[in-house]
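Notebook entry, structure prediction.
Reason for the run: the old model in the group folder had no record of what sequence produced it. Starting over properly, with the input documented here first.
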Amino acid sequence: MNLRRDVFQAIADPTRRAILVLVATQSMTAGAIASNFDTARPTVSKHLQILTECELLKQEQNGREIYYHLNPQKIKEIADFIEPFCNMWDDRFNKLENIMKNYTSKKQ
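New structure, fully documented this time:
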């Protein structure tokens, strides 16, 4: 059975977010990634599996080694989903800022 994981559940875990940050600039092997954490390698492997199932990471075999790298298309999908919320809050904060400026200038 092919279980499809939710990408937002995947990035909710701080270890998985840290893995994404690690591989954002360069491809890394599972061993290289695991060396950055104080957890057992099978635990990191499980995190890598989840990130790969969500398509946040892609695997690339180079000889005997499997390298993990960020999937920018999937990261963009997440950013595109979040962008309207960012715009909404920016708009709200800008309105609040204008109200506060008007309030202070009227008070003086």
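Summary: The longest helix spans residues 72-107.
The old model has been moved to the deprecated folder.
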